[in-house]
Amino acid sequence: MRTLCASTLIGEFFLIGFAGLVAMKDPDLSMSTVWTVSGVAMFLCVALCGLVTRPGGVAFGWALQIALIASGFVVPTMFFMGAVFAALWWASVHYGRKIDEAKARFAAQAETSAPDAA
Which long-range contacts (CB under 8 A, 24 or more apart) does 77-85 make? Predict the structure, then answer.
């Protein structure tokens, strides 16, 4: 699960950076505000890559997805892109857990069959 979720989060890191470039063109927003918010969100994406397997990591990832969708109020395209990345996050969590379960099953089978081979 960690690899799939981290891949999604790194994609979001770049998406947030590009959205920051678009938001910078808005005359109502100061450049420092845009880059403070974008920088914090980008840092959270990278930090969450390491925390995703810990308790609450996936829930924090969902909070980040909601914030990404809500950023559509500043950059309207982010409504769509946030929804796409929320779907990718769901798929990463869902299929990542299935992969982890399959790996555990295969490891358990290999462990039980290893004494027979020796």
Answer: 77/19, 77/22, 78/19, 81/15, 81/19, 85/8, 85/11, 85/12, 85/15
Question: Does pLDDT of 115 surpass 90?
Answer: no
User: 3: Cβ–Cβ under 8 A, 6 or more apart, which residues?
Assistant: 96
Q: Which tokens go with 94?
A: 């869902």
Share of the chain above pLDDT 90, in %: 88
**What CA–CA distance (Å, rounded) separates 107 from 70?**
42
- Rounded to whole angstroms, the Cα distance separating 65 from 2 reads 17
The residue-averaged pLDDT of 17-23 equals 96
From CA 27, how far away is CA 20, in angstroms rounded?
Answer: 13
Query: What rounded mean pLDDT belongs to the chain?
Result: 93
